[in-house]
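User: quick one, sequence for these tokens?
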């Protein structure tokens, strides 16, 4: 009886030991599978990270290439603008040469000028006291003076030049009708009566406008004369 009990006890212990061993084997297998799965996940994750890094690197390279192209295009635009600016500067610099040519192309003309006050000689009693010394004995302040001016200059231009050339005092002023000759050689308007003053003729004809408006073409005979009758 006792021997049977011992056998049964031994069998039970053996069965328990087998169960424990089987349980240990299963746990080891589960841990192994778990480790394999973890390794697989890490491998997959690393592969995903590598792909993302490659994509990021490619995107960065594309941006750098695009930036380089834009910089090249911008630099070419700047160069083009600079070239245009240089061409414009050259053209604007060349223009004054044309202007200078047109300025020097004016034609010179020659006219004769006479300044006389013969009317005073027969009206010396009406002359303002102290002005006798300004009246020449023959009445001519300037006789047939040849003067060269530019085509398009006026009668007043030639009078002014002739007076400068011969140190003759000229008294003139602007008016509503143009330049007005008030006095020549210190003989002024109203110095020999209330209607006295200076007038001028061109080729023997009395002019009907200011000497500053009468343009010359060349060859004219101009006479400024002092009148006592208006």
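Assistant:
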């Amino acid at each position: 009886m006792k021997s049977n009990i011992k056998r049964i006890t031994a069998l039970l212990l053996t069965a328990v030991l087998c169960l424990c061993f089987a349980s240990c084997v299963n746990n080891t297998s589960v841990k192994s599978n778990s480790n394999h799965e973890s390794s697989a996940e890490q491998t997959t994750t690393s592969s995903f990270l590598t792909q993302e890094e490659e994509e990021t690197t490619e995107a960065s390279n594309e941006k750098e290439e695009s930036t380089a192209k834009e910089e090249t295009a911008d630099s070419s635009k700047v160069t083009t603008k600079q070239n245009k600016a240089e061409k414009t500067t050259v053209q604007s610099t060349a223009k004054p040469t044309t202007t200078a040519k047109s300025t020097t192309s004016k034609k010179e003309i020659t006219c004769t000028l006479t300044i006389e006050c013969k009317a005073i000689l027969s009206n010396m009693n009406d002359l303002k006291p102290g002005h006798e010394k300004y009246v020449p004995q023959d009445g001519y302040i300037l006789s047939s003076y040849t003067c060269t001016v530019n085509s398009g200059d006026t009668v007043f231009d030639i009078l002014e030049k002739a007076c400068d050339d011969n140190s003759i005092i000229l008294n003139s002023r602007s008016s509503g009708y143009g330049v007005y000759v008030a006095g020549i050689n210190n003989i002024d308007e109203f110095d020999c009566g209330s209607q006295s003053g200076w007038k001028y003729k061109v080729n023997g004809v009395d002019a009907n406008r200011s000497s500053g408006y009468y343009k010359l073409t060349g060859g004219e005979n101009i006479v400024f004369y002092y009148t006592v009758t208006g």
